[in-house]
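Next comes a concrete protein, fold included:
___
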Amino acid sequence: MTQRFSRNTWLLIPLGLMLAVLSTSCDDNSFGTIRYDDIGPFDTTGAERVVAPNGLIIYIHQEGHGDVVAENHAVRLRYTGRTTDGDIFDSSYRNEVDTPTVLNLRNMIPGFMQGLAGFNMEVDGQIVRMNAAREGSMRTLVIPPSLAYGNSSGHQLREETLVFDIDLVSISSEN
């Protein structure tokens, strides 16, 4: 009995062989896997530096072109949070993927929210919202303790200056 293969079957055989070879020749971290420990900090050399009156420092690596972030937004982003000595305390890469995380800005520490939604500043006698990020922005936020966890007793990051590298993918929704 002779078996006949369709044209589609002949196309699948080389594809299957190619995938088999690739899967045996690559290590576990080669396809879309990002190791939490390997995420280096953004280079702030040459980035625009903005200092808010409350001590928040924003380094703008790339200004986005999308909608402007507001305090009531949820945002989709990739981020890594470090202490000033470089220890990572949180990251969206912690599960070894680079899928953006959705965060509601109202639930974040004040410095994080202000670093994306902007901060209030008096200009010519009027309060103006300054330096809000746009979708597609990349920023480094240097957040003083007063805009982070301050001297909260029992919190591991109390009295710490926090540094966040943020890749703002999109505004998810208004809440």
Q: What stands out?
A: The mean pLDDT is 81. The chain has one domain: 36-174. The beta strands are 48-51, 57-62, 73-83, 88-91, 101-104, 119-123, 126-130, 138-143, 162-174.
